[in-house]
Amino acid sequence: MSILEVSGLHRHFPIRNIWGRRTGWLRALDGVSFGIAKGEILGVVGESGCGKSTLGKTIAGIHTPSGGRVDFEGNEIATLTPSAGRALRRNLQYCYQDPGASLDPRWKIGRSLEEPLIVHTDMPKAERMERVQATLRAVGLPERHLDLYPHEISGGQQRRVGLARILMLRPSLVILDEPTSGLDVSVQAVVLNLLLELRQEFDLTYMFISHDLSVVRLFCQRIAVMYLGRVVEIGTTEDVFAAPAHPYTRSLLSAVPIIGGRRIVDTFALEGEPPSPGAIPSGCRFRTRCSFADAKCAAEDPADRVLADGRLVACHYAEKLETSA
Amino acid sequence: MKTFRRLLRDRALVIGVTLVTLLVLAAIFAAPLSNFPSHVTGFDPSQRLKPPGETFWLGTDRMGADIYSRLLFGARLTILISVTATAVAVLIGVPIGLLAGYYERWFSDLLMRVSDVFLAVPQIVLAIAIAQTLGPAIQNVILALSATYWPFWARLVYAETRSLRNEVFIEAAVAMGASPLRIMVLHVVPSIASSIIVRTTIGMGATILAAASLGFLGLGAPPPTPEWGRMIAESREFLPQAWWYATAPGIAILLVVMGFNLLGDGLRDVLDPRIRRGS
Amino acid sequence: MADFLDVRDLSVGFVTENGTARVLDHVSFSMRQGEIMGLVGESGCGKTTLARAILGVLPDNAEIGSGTMGFDGADLLARDTSDLRGRLITFIPQDPFGSFSPLFTVGDQIGELMRWKSPERMPGERRYAASRRRADHARVLAALRDVQLPDAERLLRKYPHELSGGQRQRVMIAMALLPEPKLVIADEPTTALDVTIQAQILKLLRRLASERNASVLFTTHDLGTAWEICDRVTVMYAGQEAETAEVGDFFARPRHPYTGMLLASLPTQGAALRGIPGDVPSPFTPPPGCRFHPRCPRATELCRQTHNETAEPAPGHHVRCHHPQVWPAS
User: How far is CA A139 from CA A95, A114, A142, A194, in A?
Assistant: First the structure.
């Protein structure tokens, strides 16, 4: 059962020159479509400029889309105004890369945790405090933290408080934006384990946005690869990692270090840099760097093709490349 | 306790607090402290223009009234005018700044341009124009001052709100579904409170000076109200012989304005952790 | 074979109002000519401080408690190293953007480098002769081509903010190699880059280093990058060097418990997520003896009390541990 369905989501920014005249469009999201099933962990990967962060924020309602549909728990939420969407979005929470930064430094932690309940529910004070305490326990923090300010606890503990705040409304879907970026490897493991525990306890579905492919491989069941505002490949993690179908996915995976395995310094082959999202190439957006590109690729933007194992790939020659790999 | 100790170390702050406290005490205890409370309205022509001495500590004015006593009662007026004018200016300026800064729509620009217009005109000139039109009365002085000073707060709050808008915790509050009003009042205002407080204390000094100027020009309360500015105006024709006549209220204004400025400076250093002078 | 870079028993502390932070504790570390040495560790382990000590740019409040640093025969600690810096020892920073001045073009900034640090410059030379200027310019263009930056002349006229992160880092590499250094210190040069750009840069760096026979000291917190580019790897923990070995040996047969646990905590297919329990000790109050003992499953009384010396359980494989033993494969 699908908890989230995104169809043709667009978010375009006008690019203006100094006179205020529009000279083009920055297509941060350019027709994104995918679905997330209840209880699953979907990884969204891509490099800078691919739009994965914008995707997360647009679904969460922080940004307004320029077009497309977002269906969450059966309700269309993309086109709603912030206030109308608020009620429907209760069950959809967005977690920042540094959840501790989402806390108001002048508010005590207890108050920050209570706030979602005050805004969204009419729970009486006693009930609110009960839930605050229960959630704080669930993230492994002591009750005395309720009376402290964020700067009085460590960064790791702030992160847990930030997570607790997201969970206060018992959401069904949580969008995690780069939850392990910048963390030391040993801390990363702790955070990921915590996320798994919380998923168990609160029956959560995760959309895991990250640029770290090794973490995504371990943590996510399905993976969507994004390039310049579009999903170019989506399928189970196992399938995609074992035999990437889209040329970009191949290059991306071949760039990831494998300890004890082949060395990229010997094998890596992708040249050049991704074009700017303000000047996306015509036809297939990856064609400027793709070794298989031809005239058709320059003329036509590929539609999603379904492969044998159920994957969706946005490439004209997906099946041919798959068999030749 | 540690904060208090730190506060004490800042000499400017200590002087500022002392002066402001003296002003407040003078106002509250004007009656018991003054020697001739009746001289606020009454007068004694036989004693006019006497230099400072035993009976009249700061001399007498042209009506024979004790300057010292009038000064003390004038303190009440000073506080009344400046506190009220500043309060009204804050109550107008802060919400305007919040709205303009929080929303990035057409009215943000409009509000800021309006405040720019007010700021473009020299404050005193504007205050004079308003006070003249409305006539000499204390309320009109207060009105004139609030009308000319609210843009300072609006601008400050606008700038701070604008930059705060990009902070993660504000965006997180928006994402969480808090209403803009809630965010403005419970998140933005507490974060910018220290800037507002500092600006307000310094603003008080400016307001007092402006009020005295208006009084000097005869635009304040009518005589015989013991307004400090008016006292200086009255003294003009008797200078330089009756030097005490202008000196006393002049120094009073100086000390009070300086006091508020030092208080504001000191508070800024204490409240803004980034500008911490070496201890 | 004499070591090209030989750091022995180096201790560095930072004096602050909260006490002295003992950031490096009797560190011994060496490099051979022409090799790429990886210096890995998590935040706070001291790798950046070690790199800076070698370069000679420690902050004012740094105190060198003990040790010697031999570089190509000379003792770096005994003298002012400003003549070596930027010439025989160069530096590639983590954040290329912050290292460029936003006010001058790329060409101006490389030009300034060549004015003072070009290999053609005679020591004590005061005038910048036109002939040398021309020769330097040719070198710069060749260098930019080497780092695969197209249209070098046009690029020199651009400002740093007009280049992408990958392009800036390539310029940095070019600048680090132009003076024909013997040692290049690269401080987390690919951390801020996307993974495909990182792959390109690593490949480039390795090729250029081997072509010019330059040694590279490559610091990183990402073990994957160390695997990719390094010949030997040293891992640091809390100001002590825990283990040094050939890259293959390091990853396949780690002998220090920290190395073993660190490798085990890397996300790999099929393995359960494992962290290292406990926290990194504060450099102000480091634990006595071996600094890892509070978190080490093999710790004994000896570890708690006695300063850990470096052992060499296998040729070329140095471990600073009382009980070095190959970490059980998971």
Answer: 15, 15, 9, 7
Is the dihedral angle over the CA atoms B51, B54, B60, B64 positive or is it negative? Answer: negative
Q: Which chains form contacts with chain C, at 3 or more CB pairs under 8 Å?
A: A
Q: Considering A170, A196, A216, which residue would you say is the last residue of a domain?
A: A170
Residue C1 or residue B75, greater confidence: B75
Let me know whether A160 and A28 are in one domain.
no
A174-228 confidence digits (pLDDT tens) = 999 998 887 888 788 888 989 999 999 999 999 999 988 989 998 999 999 999 9
The pLDDT tens digits for C89-127 are 899 988 877 788 889 999 999 998 888 888 888 877 788
| Longest CA pairwise span in chain A (Å) | 67
DSSP string of C280-303? PPPTTSPPSSSTTGGG-TT--HHH
Residue B49 has pLDDT above 90, yes or no: no
Q: Is residue C327 in some structural domain? A: no
Asked if C221 lies within 8 A of A185 by C-beta distance, the reply is yes
Between CA A101 and CA A92 the distance in angstroms is: 19
The DSSP secondary structure of A292-322, one letter per residue, reads T--HHHHH-PPPPEE-TTS-EE--TTHHHHH
- CB-based contact A187 C275, cutoff 8 Å: yes
Q: At B82, which amino acid appears?
A: S
Cis peptide leading into B224, omega within 30 of 0? yes
- Note whether A121 and A264 are same-domain residues: no
Rounded to an integer, the average pLDDT of C233-247 is 92
Whether C120 and C263 share a structural domain: no
Query: Minimal CA–CA distance to B225: which of B151, B159, B138, B155?
Result: B138
Return the DSSP state at B66: B
Same-domain check for residues A121 and A183: no
Would the CB atoms of A257 and C227 count as touching at under 8 Å? yes
The pLDDT of residue A222 is 95
Let me know if residue C190 belongs to a domain: yes
Q: Set out the domains of chain B in order of their start, with CATH numbers.
A: 2-271 (1.10.3720.10)
For C23, the 3-state DSSP assignment is strand
CB C139 within 8 A of CB C114: yes
Task: Confirm or reject contact between B174 and chain A (CB < 8 A).
Answer: yes
Tokens of A147: 């009376």
Place of tokens 């059980």: C328
User: Is the domain of C298 the same as that of C200?
Assistant: no
pLDDT of residue B27: 84
Where in the sequence is the domain holding C189, given as residue range(s)? 5-234
CA–CA min distance B171, chain A (Å) = 8
pLDDT in tens, C46-84: 998 999 888 888 888 898 888 888 888 778 887 777 778
Structure tokens at A152: 């009085």
- C326 in a structural domain: no
Q: Give a yes or no: residue C330 inside a domain.
A: no
Same domain, C153 and C121: yes
> How buried is residue C75: exposed, middle or buried, by Cβ count under 10 Å (0-12/13-18/19+)?
exposed
Domain count, chain A: 2
Task: Count the alpha carbons within 13 Å of C309 in the hemisphere toward its beta carbon.
Answer: 3
Q: Searching chain A, which residue's CA lies closest to the CA of residue B168?
A: A102
Q: What pLDDT, on a 0 to 100 scale, did the predictor assign at position B278?
A: 31
pTM, 2 dp: 0.80
Pairwise CB contact (< 8 Å): C195 & A219: no
Is C271 a residue whose pLDDT tops 70?
Answer: no
Quick one: which of C213, C206, C280, C202 has its CA closest to C240?
A: C280
d(CA C318, CA C255): 9
State how beta strands A41-45 and A222-227 pair: parallel
Beta pairing, strands C62-71 & C74-75? antiparallel
Domain at C127, CATH number: 3.40.50.300
pLDDT given for residue C156 in this prediction: 92
